[in-house]
Structure prediction request, 396 residues.
Amino acid sequence: MNKRLLIHLCLLIPLFFTVLNLQVLISIFINDTIAQVIAYMNLGLILAGIGLIINIKGELSKTARLWIIFYTLYFVIAIAAGVFHRNSSSVVASMIPLFYTVGFFYYLSILENTKIFVRVLMISLFISCVLCIYFDSINFDLDRGGVHIYTVDRAQGVYGDANNMALVCNLTFLFFYKFFNLKNKFFKVLRLAVLATIALSLFKTFSTTGLSVFILCLVMLNYKFFTGIRLILGLILIPIFYVFLLNLNTITADMNLVGQQRDKVNNLVNVLSFNFDKVDDSGRGDLAAETLHYIYKNPFFGNGVDFGALHEVHNTYLGIWADAGIFVFMFFIIMLIMNFLRGFTCIEEYKYFIWAVLISMSVFMLSLHSVINQPYLMAIFIYIAYQIDSRKPKIE
Prediction:
């Protein structure tokens, strides 16, 4: 078999499996043994891919290298902290995102690999959005492993978490909006249908964060539209849209929203009307307060690998601080800021796309503790890092 084809298979098959969370789905629909075999197979493929590509790698990204440094600091300090404080965790399982990060760090250093990576990623992401709509239509609940007898009020998709699904919907929309842009009339109609499907899957998650980030990113990607008279019209429409959102409860009164669906509408209205004391954070504030207690006890070197995740902090930033201490936390913040600053120096064609992806990830890290723990999201971070370093204006 051709070596380059083998490298593609070693890296992209695990990517496809992790985007669709197939290990969990296979565990539910088939059996646990096959799911575990697939998990080991994916890890083996990633390691084999690293071994095959390391000697033919291209120019490595300085921005992407920051992620390797971050993970090295994180695991060295967090493992030591876990041993010192006797907090047990599955270190090998927790290191799987690192293996994917290293794999795509080398894989995406070869320019021609980027196109096939984006295609496989987009196909995988879109399938996850379609499955989100389908699972919601049949009332399938991943946490309960089947069709639920009660109405599932927020679509959780293939991840079993509405906010996680909302993040994926946003990323899917950004990639299709940017790259699925053919001039043929048929494909223009198809593009609209695909984007509408992705938007529908996002809507079904009833994620306040997802909707807010979606609107912000959509405006960013269409920055060229808001010039001259269009900018004036846009500014005029803002207060009209604001009033519309303030009356969202009245507008949706006949929509038969249930449970968290109505709660999320109330949250949006309360945020816009500055009634922050009435905003329901689904208990995240209490979880964050509990984690802060442990952070204050061990602020410098943390409590151990995945300590924040085990306490369900639902905040990546606090999770890193709780796991590995303030020094790793500060490195992580500085690294993100460097990504934004370097992204802003890219050519306009990619600048706002890069920023939109980074904003989506950064904002959702406030409500998810699993962003840097998911291999496919780390692959996207590495891809964005390579785009940051390769999409600079040409110096004449």
